[in-house]
């Protein structure tokens, strides 16, 4: 267990205090191995968004610990959390969240701008961005703006952006929620491809059909994990 | 993120909405431009006044009648005045002076040969005039004491007047008519041009006593001298000259030394008096311009707050991708500062250009005050930082989860 990419122990999250306190998470225990493809499901109000936010280091837990890639991030300051998000987490949002006036390449290299470790030159940043776009099959769309791309292509740009800092995990929040069936298939195929290359992926979805693509599905209800199943068919030599 | 990177990101933010960025800077442009133009205008006004006073001649002591204090009734006597005799008394008794003179002007038609010049400035004066005004004679002679004592009808022409009336021909000895009186030309002045507001070359000079007799009649109070000019030999002599003049006039007028019926002024004292007036004027203009800068700053703050609201999702995204609160704050602060600096820069250009245009196109003399440029530019930068800080802090304090959820 000590080599897990994500290790969550007795995680709780409480909003508000006293009578109006809302217990969003009530003691979550979860371990995600490196290279796993995990889907988190649950009805609205089940706490999956809260869990996602904590996994993404956008929020801090009220209690319990969260160890990401060997680093306990449950008590870090806002600045430190920003650094963790930058280096270890690649976000993929339902609504892509691309900056509309920037080209695909400029959008993709955004995380590099906030990376204090490596002071890459503008040219190097651009090269990285182009490489990332090639990975997602958009090498021809480097200078296009989001409004010149289809929804599926925009989401692929967002995935390229998530990949550019070589993160420990990709966090995908309803990545196909805004896409038609065909584009959804493309995005899922891309996620599978990344998974096959060894990327750890955590995906939140409420569609069972989408969750099927993951090798493991956990189901949340009322702030607790009520089921934790392997899909089996997509397993790739993991333990558990 | 490095400062330079943040700078570029902020620049990107501004160029995304160029029209709005420009409109936002307009307030600062006007503010900075106004500071520079207004300081240039008041400096120009000050210089204009100084020039006019200095154009009278160097090291001048001016003697003017004091305001009457008696009012009417017994003992009030005649209102104080200076006379032609005072000029002679000073010329004869005061040492260390170049000359003493007085002037009384009137506008009359001047006719010579076949040419009539309308409404020429006819200056009645005394022999000391050319010394006091440092004015050179071209040919012939200037007015003498005898001309004044005997009220001779002689005239000395300004250079342009002589040219217009007689051309290449010598004017000396010719007769001209001023209004209906015949005068003999005894001299022509050298070219001097325009000094202050006075075009010396288009005037004619006749004895003071003739002006009093012919043009400004005694019964209208026209024979009193408004200002007597005494030219000291040097700056160092001025105090001595002033006390001598005072003594001579007290004797001449037979008045109590404690309350003389005349006052003495120097160019410096007039310039000082004017300077305090224009300084108050300049301070007022400075405040007005300063207020417009503040208003411009509030405009920037307003737009930055709108921008932060509009770009909430962008801020959330940047935070998710690893921007720390301080990165966000710096980005928006730099946007505000750049707006105000660009506004400042354009404002400096507009102010300098505006001052130049005012000067060239006529109506107003302006003199660029060099310190006004860094002053107003610095004020613009300060305005940007001051009014940009609050919106930037608002942006930095956004919760990324909330911000990402915002539509």
Explain the overall architecture:
The complex is a heterodimer of chains A (240) and B (407). Chain A has 240 residues and is of the alpha/beta class. Chain A has a single domain (35-59, 78-230), classed as P-loop containing nucleotide triphosphate hydrolases (Rossmann fold). Chain A contains seven helices and ten strands. In chain A, the strands form two sheets. A six-stranded mixed β-sheet of chain A has the order 6-7-8-3-9-10, sandwiched between helices. In chain A, a hairpin with a 2-residue loop joins strand 9 (216-221) and strand 10 (224-230). In chain A, helix 3 (104-113) packs across helix 4 and helix 4 (122-135) packs across helix 5 (151-163). Residues 234-240 of chain A have low confidence and may be disordered. Chain B has 407 residues and is an alpha+beta fold. Chain B folds into two domains: 3-51 and 272-405, no CATH class; 81-260, no CATH class. In chain B, 55% of the residues lie in helices and 18% in strands. In chain B, helix 1 (3-15) packs across helix 11 (325-360) and helix 2 runs antiparallel to helix 12. The longest helix of chain B has 44 residues, at 267-310. Residues 70-77 of chain B have low confidence and may be disordered. The interface between A and B is medium-sized, with 26 and 23 residues.
Strand content of chain A: 25-35%
> Could you estimate the helical fraction of the residues of chain B in percent?
40-55%
Shape of chain A: globular
* Multimeric organization: heterodimer
Give the neighbour order of strands across the main sheet of chain B. Answer: 3-4-11-6-8-7
- If strands are numbered along the chain, what order do they take across the biggest sheet of chain A? 6-7-8-3-9-10
Q: How many domains in all of chain A? A: 1
Low-confidence stretches of chain B: 70-77
Query: How many independent structural domains of chain B?
Result: 2
Biggest β-sheet description of chain B: 6 strands, mixed, barrel
Could you give the count of β-strands of chain B?
13
| H/E series of chain B | HHEHEEEHEHEHEEEEEHEHEHHHHH
- SSE-based structural type of chain A: alpha/beta
> How large, in whole angstroms, is the Cα Rg of chain A?
18 Å
Q: Considering residues with a beta carbon less than 8 A from a beta carbon on another chain, report the largest interface and each chain's count.
A: A-B, 26 and 23 residues
Structural class of chain B: alpha+beta
Unreliably modeled segments of chain A: 234-240
CATH architecture label name of chain A? 3-Layer(aba) Sandwich
Distance between the termini of chain B: 27 Å
| Helix percent band of chain A | 25-40%
CATH superfamily of chain A: P-loop containing nucleotide triphosphate hydrolases
């Amino acid at each position: 267990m000590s080599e897990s990419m994500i290790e969550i122990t007795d995680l709780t999250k409480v909003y508000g205090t006293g009578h109006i306190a809302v217990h969003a998470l009530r003691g979550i225990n979860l371990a995600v191995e490196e290279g796993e493809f995990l889907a988190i499901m649950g009805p609205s109000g089940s706490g999956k968004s809260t869990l996602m936010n904590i996994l993404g280091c956008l929020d801090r837990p009220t209690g319990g610990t969260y160890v990401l890639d060997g680093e306990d991030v449950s008590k870090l300051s806002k600045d430190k959390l920003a650094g963790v998000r930058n280096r270890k987490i690649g976000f993929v949002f339902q609504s892509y969240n691309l900056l509309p006036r920037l080209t695909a390449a400029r959008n993709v290299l955004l995380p590099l701008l906030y990376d204090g470790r490596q002071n890459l030159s503008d040219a190097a940043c651009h090269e990285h961005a182009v490489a990332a776009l090639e990975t997602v099959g958009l090498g021809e769309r480097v200078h296009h703006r989001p409004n010149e791309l289809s929804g599926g292509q925009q989401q692929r740009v967002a995935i390229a952006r998530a990949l550019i800092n070589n993160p420990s995990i990709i966090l995908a929040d309803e990545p196909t929620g805004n896409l038609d069936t065909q584009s959804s298939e493309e995005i899922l195929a891309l996620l599978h491809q990344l998974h096959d290359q060894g990327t750890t992926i955590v995906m939140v979805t409420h569609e069972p059909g989408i969750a099927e693509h993951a090798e493991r599905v956990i189901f949340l209800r009322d702030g607790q994990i009520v089921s934790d199943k392997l899909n089996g068919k997509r397993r790739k030599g993991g333990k558990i | 993120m490095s400062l330079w990177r943040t700078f570029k990101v902020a620049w990107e933010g501004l160029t995304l909405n160029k029209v709005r960025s420009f409109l936002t800077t307009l307030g600062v442009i006007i503010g900075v431009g106004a500071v520079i133009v207004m300081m240039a205008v008041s400096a120009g006004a000050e210089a204009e006044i100084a020039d006019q006073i200095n154009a009278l001649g160097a090291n001048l002591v001016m003697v003017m009648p004091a305001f009457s204090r008696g009012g009417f009734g017994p003992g009030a006597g005649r209102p104080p005045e200076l006379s032609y005799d005072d000029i002679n008394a000073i010329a004869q008794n005061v040492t260390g002076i170049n000359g003493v003179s007085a002037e009384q002007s009137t506008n009359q038609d001047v006719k010579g040969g076949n040419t009539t010049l309308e409404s020429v400035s006819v200056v009645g004066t005394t022999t000391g005039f050319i010394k006091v005004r440092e004015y050179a004679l071209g040919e012939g002679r200037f007015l003498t004491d005898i001309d004044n004592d005997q009220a001779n009808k002689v005239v000395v022409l300004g250079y342009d007047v002589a040219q217009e009336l007689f051309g290449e021909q010598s004017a000396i000895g010719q007769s001209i008519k001023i209004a209906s009186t015949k005068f003999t030309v005894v001299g022509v002045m050298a070219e001097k041009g325009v000094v202050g507001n006075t075009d010396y070359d288009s005037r004619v000079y006749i004895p003071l006593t003739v002006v009093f007799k012919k043009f400004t009649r005694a019964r209208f109070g026209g024979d009193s001298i408004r200002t007597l000019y005494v030219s000291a030999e040097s700056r160092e002599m001025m105090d001595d000259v002033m006390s001598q003049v005072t003594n001579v006039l007290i004797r001449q007028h037979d008045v109590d030394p404690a309350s003389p019926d005349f006052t003495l002024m120097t160019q410096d004292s007039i310039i000082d008096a004017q300077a305090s007036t224009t300084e108050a004027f300049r301070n007022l203009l400075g405040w007005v311009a300063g207020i417009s800068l503040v208003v411009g700053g509030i405009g920037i703050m307003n737009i930055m707050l709108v921008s932060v609201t509009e770009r909430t999702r962008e801020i959330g995204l940047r935070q998710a991708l690893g921007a720390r609160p301080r990165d966000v704050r710096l980005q928006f602060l730099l946007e505000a500062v750049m707006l105000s600096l660009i506004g400042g820069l354009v404002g400096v250009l507009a102010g300098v250009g505006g001052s130049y245009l005012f000067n060239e196109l006529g109506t107003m003399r302006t003199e660029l005050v060099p310190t006004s440029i860094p002053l107003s530019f610095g004020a613009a930068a300060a305005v940007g930082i001051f009014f940009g800080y609050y919106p930037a802090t608002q942006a930095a304090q956004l919760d990324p989860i909330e911000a990402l959820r915002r539509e």
